Amino acid sequence: MHSAPNDAASDRLIEEAVDLIMLMQDQSGDPEISERIRLWRNTSGQHDAVWRKVAGIYDASGLLLEARQRNERRESLFPTRRNFLIGGLAFTGAGIWGYDVVPDLWLSMQAGHITRKGQLQEISLPGGAHATLGPNSAITLRSHDLRSELELLSGMAFVDHTRDWSAEVSLVARGVNFEVERAKLDLSLDSGSIYLSVAEGRVTLSPVKDRSRTIATLGAGQWLSYEPRHREIEFGARAVDEIANWRDGQLIARNDPVGILIDRISRWYTGRVIQADPRMNATRISGIFDLSDPISALSAVVRPAGGHLRTLPGGLVLISPV
Question: What is the average per-residue pLDDT within 190-205?
Fold first, then answer.
């Protein structure tokens, strides 16, 4: 069992490559940085392979090109007060987006299946079971004979394990194991918490490090939210035909926190959503929201909490108090 040291070494190389990318971005054209990168890449074949992987993801994202274009625009345009404020906000948003590339990079290196914003993906499992991966989500899949283990790394997924009961399916998310017994379930990761709804069958939760200890068991029509760090848990019930309606382009809220709804709807919006005042996140609302129009859906979600939505250049959406 030597996988942990190898994983740690790979993680360290990824971090070093990202640091070099950031230096190259901030000090474009500096020959010392170029030489430093050359020496780092020549350290070993693994160094060079990690660099090509990281640089390829950054180039595909357009981050380096956007950084150069921002610098050129700042030098050529006269900053009126309004342009300065909007440009400054856009720059801040682009900065947030840039740092978000780092976790996206980690997901790209680890995930077996990963989706873009607005994209769903169907995944076949042994024995006829299947999963639907939601937008902006990532999952790993480990299968052996009729045993499948899915680890949800980010986002949301619907799993149907009702077709072949001889196949075993379990899920893992944020250190929690989910044993699936002839079940249909909706699992999502939002704002540091795990959200599980069961439409059919039974699901038992336990810590990955101690699967003999049961956290909770849910049946059809039940849901829970669980915050693993502080072990905070909340239970509730909902109609089974309202579970995982996002697969059909709807998000149904029943006294749900605004912050969670913003997280989920944002997965259908291809731009960036920036929340200037998180105090509205705890407000609970109910409603049905059309995911084919995420801007209107976001506006409808934040309005009862006293929020206002503004669209800005570059695909940015700002949520702030009215």
Answer: 94
Residue with the two structure tokens 């849910």: 218
User: In terms of domains, do 89 and 121 share one?
Assistant: no
Residue 289 β-bridge partners: 251
> Are 104 and 161 within one domain?
no
CATH number for the domain that contains residue 286: 3.55.50.30
Domain boundary among 65, 89, 110: 110
What's the pTM value of the predicted model, to 2 decimals?
0.69
Q: Are 137 and 170 in contact (CB under 8 A)?
A: no
- Chosen domain end from 241, 257, 277: 241
- The DSSP H or E segment spanning 107 is helix 81-110
Rounded CA gap, 258 and 243, in Å?
A: 18
Residue 184 tokens, joined: 């249909």
pLDDT tens sequence across 294-308: 999 999 999 999 998
Who's near 88: CB < 8 A, 6+ residues apart? Answer: none
Helices (H) and strands (E) in the chain, counts: 7, 17
What is the distance between the alpha carbons of residues 231 and 215, in angstroms, rounded to a whole number? 9
Judge contact between 261 and 301, C-beta under 8 A: yes
**How many structural domains comprise the chain?**
3
Q: Which domain holds residue 266?
A: 249-321
* Side chain identity, residue 318: L
State pLDDT tens for residues 117-155.
999 999 988 777 889 999 999 999 887 777 788 999 999
**Within this chain, do residues 138 and 100 fall inside the same structural domain, yes or no?**
no
